[in-house]
Amino acid sequence: MRSSSRVFRVAAIATQSVIFTLAGCGNGDYPEMARVTGTVAYNGKPVPNMMVNFMPTEGRPSWGKTDADGKFEMVYDSDYKGAKIGHHKVYFTPPATTIDGGTSKQSRKAIAAASGLTAAELQNLRSKYGSESETKLEVDIKNDPEVLDLKLD
């Protein structure tokens, strides 16, 4: 009888330890965040269906997708919307609408159409803002909430 009560106590203590440990794994693991929304326009026109990527100086990136009006909301992960407070490089990737990676002429036209751009405009956007290494667009996230109007040319 004594050994079963001892086993019960050990199991109860172990269960409590796990619960307290998991309860401590909350917001403390996240950097200081801000809710970030905005719009993307290319030559004055809203850009729909474009992935917006924020790459901070340090840490993990945030992303968003523009809607039909070029509006976006950044997402940090499945639990948090927003972006890390601080400096970010901003780059854009078109929607993946084809299985060949956009290599054929037909695929490039389909991707451009989905983003509301001509094939030439999409190529220009990709060459200027299409990767973290190429983009010159940078933003500083300082406030919560932060509203950005990203005007591309």
List the helices and strands and how they pair.
Layout: H1 2-23, E1 33-34, E2 36-42, E3 45-46, E4 51-56, E5 62-65, E6 71-73, E7 83-84, E8 86-93, H2 105-114, H3 119-129, E9 138-141, E10 146-152
Description:
It is a single chain. The chain is an alpha+beta fold and 153 residues long. The protein has a single domain, classed as Sandwich (Immunoglobulin-like), CATH 2.60.40. 28% of the residues lie in helices and 29% in strands. It is built from 3 helices and 10 strands, in the order αββββββββααββ. Strands 2, 3, 6 and 10 form a 4-stranded mixed beta sheet that branches. The protein has a 4-stranded antiparallel beta sheet with strand order 5-4-8-9. A two-stranded antiparallel sheet has the order 1-7. A hairpin with a 5-residue loop joins strand 4 and strand 5. It starts with a helix and ends with a strand.
Name the descriptors:
153 residues, four-stranded antiparallel beta sheet, elongated, Immunoglobulin-like, 28% helix
Sheet with most strands: 4 strands, mixed
Q: Label the structural class.
A: alpha+beta
Beta strands, count? 10
SS field, number of helical segments: 3
CATH topology: Immunoglobulin-like
Q: Could you report the average pLDDT, rounded to the nearest whole number?
A: 81
Helix content estimate = 25-40%
Using the coordinates above, name the CATH class: Mainly Beta
What's the shape? elongated
CATH architecture: Sandwich
Would you identify the regions where 5 or more consecutive residues have pLDDT less than 50? Answer: 17-26
How widely separated are the two ends? Answer: 79 Å
Radius of gyration: 23 Å
- Report strand %: 25-35%
The helix-strand sequence is: HEEEEEEEEHHEE
The number of domains is 1
The CATH homology group name: Immunoglobulins
